[in-house]
Specification:
Elements lengths: L6 H18 L6 E6 L5 H10 L4 E5 L4 E5 L5 H7 L4 E6 L2 E4 L14 E2 L2 H5 L15 E6 L13 E6 L12 H10 L6 E2 L7 E6 L6 E3 H13 L4 E4 L1 E2 L4 H12 L3 E5 L18 E7 L17 E4 L3 E5 L3 E5 L2 H17 L5 H11 L7 H4 L6 H11 L1
Parallel strand pairs: 6-9, 7-10, 7-12, 8-10, 12-14, 14-15, 15-16
Antiparallel strand pairs: 1-3, 1-4, 2-3, 5-11, 5-13, 17-18
Helix pairs in contact: 5-8, 6-7, 8-9, 9-11
């Protein structure tokens, strides 16, 4: 019989095991993404696809592609793939938010506290110079609680790309991410890394924390249309030609892109979009400044940020402690927003500032990248060059 104090430990191992198993489950895709070559007009490509007897669900203009229904007869797609107008055809892959299962309880806070992660990256020391006011931060996630008292003043616009056509955060993940970025400095709950940035939330993941590549592509397009300056992507997919193309298109628009490395541990399993060179890939650290056990590693990791036991806002006006590279990612997104508020740097320049000022914690670059993000040094570096 297990000692009583060990029961939560074994329960957590069981939950984590189920989590990893669940990540491997892939339903048969209902849709395929058909991408056209750059010299093919989208309207002409759509007409061609329909001529093959394939039904188009919707266009994906950001990548010059269409989302198409999959039928039992795959012959039409095999024939279509040979057409010289086609750049690629792939399944509309499913991905997930990058949060770990926890046994923590929802918390209602009295008064305000600065979460340990916000302190650890040195954010409070720069608030006298900048709080990120006016910077547009896009959050592609499960939505944001627009009525949360610690967020509502910073939420400037919300949107959706899912068939459900709602903006409600019925999961809590998106609201948690938003709080780390921009919880208000208002004497209640918590305060975010950049407490005066503007939040632009687009719901692309369901109540269960799942979404498809096509959803993310539409969400990226929404961010482009709304002139977002930095985008938080606390989710992971396997490699996808369509997703890679969408990331490149967003990057061309001068948008800083930040993503969670993944929660599979190891040293060669960074998920996408974090794995793309245009994206700042974020690993997770714990309160002892060690690499979090779940944090994915690989040569693509750029920096590390707090991601274990992070207290932030949660759905229905509440607060909760959560862990994952999902929680590390918004620390870096907000740091980027603070840098942008003090400079006119392009995405490459912002990344260089973060990397050059990060604090080396002594781990391999595959686990920590350049090290722990240091907002204080980053802003000091920007001030020297302005």
């Amino acid at each position: 019989m297990f000692p009583l104090l060990l029961i939560p430990y074994y329960l957590l191992l069981g939950a984590a095991g189920a989590f990893f198993l669940d990540q491997q489950i892939r339903q048969t895709p209902k849709y395929k993404i058909v991408g056209f070559k750059s010299d093919v007009a989208l309207i002409n490509g759509r007409t061609m696809v329909e001529d093959y007897g394939i039904k188009v669900k919707k266009p994906l203009p950001l990548i010059n592609a269409c989302l198409c229904e999959v039928k039992s007869d795959a012959g039409a797609f095999r024939s279509l793939a040979k057409d010289p107008m086609i750049e690629f055809i792939e399944d509309d892959y499913e991905g997930m938010i990058q949060v770990m299962p926890t046994l923590s309880f929802e918390i209602k806070k009295q008064g305000q506290e600065i979460p340990w992660g916000v302190k650890r990256i040195g954010a409070p020391s720069v608030w006298k110079n900048t709080t990120g006011k006016g910077v547009r931060v896009g959050i592609i996630d499960t939505g944001v609680d627009i009525n949360h008292p610690d967020l509502k003043d910073n939420v400037k616009m919300t949107g959706w790309v899912l068939d459900c056509q709602n903006i409600i955060d019925d999961n809590g993940h998106g609201t948690h991410v938003a709080g780390t970025i921009a919880a208000l400095d208002n004497d209640i709950g918590v305060v975010g890394v950049a407490p005066k940035v503007e939040i632009y939330s687009v719901k692309a993941f369901t109540k269960s924390g799942r979404g498809n590549v096509s959803d993310v592509i539409e969400a990226l397009n929404w961010c482009v249309q709304n002139k977002i300056q930095v985008i938080n992507m606390s989710f992971g997919f396997k490699n996808s030609k369509a997703l890679e193309k969408a990331i490149k298109e967003a990057y061309k628009r001068n948008i800083v892109l930040v993503a969670a490395a993944g929660n599979s541990g190891g040293t060669n399993n960074v998920m996408y979009p974090a794995g793309y060179p245009e994206v700042i890939a974020v690993a997770a650290s714990n309160s002892d400044d060690k690499v979090a056990w779940f944090s994915s590693g690989g040569p693509q990791v750029d920096v590390m940020a707090p991601g274990a036991g992070i207290l932030s806002t949660y759905k229905n006006g509440e607060y909760k402690t959560m862990s994952g590279t999902s929680m590390a990612c918004p620390h870096v997104t907000a740091a980027c927003a603070l840098i942008l508020s003090m400079s006119n740097l392009d995405p490459k320049g912002v990344k260089e500032v973060l990397v050059n000022t990060a604090r080396d914690l002594g781990y391999s670059k595959k686990k920590q990248g350049a090290g722990l993000v240091d907002v204080s040094k980053a802003i000091a570096s920007v001030n020297k060059t302005v």
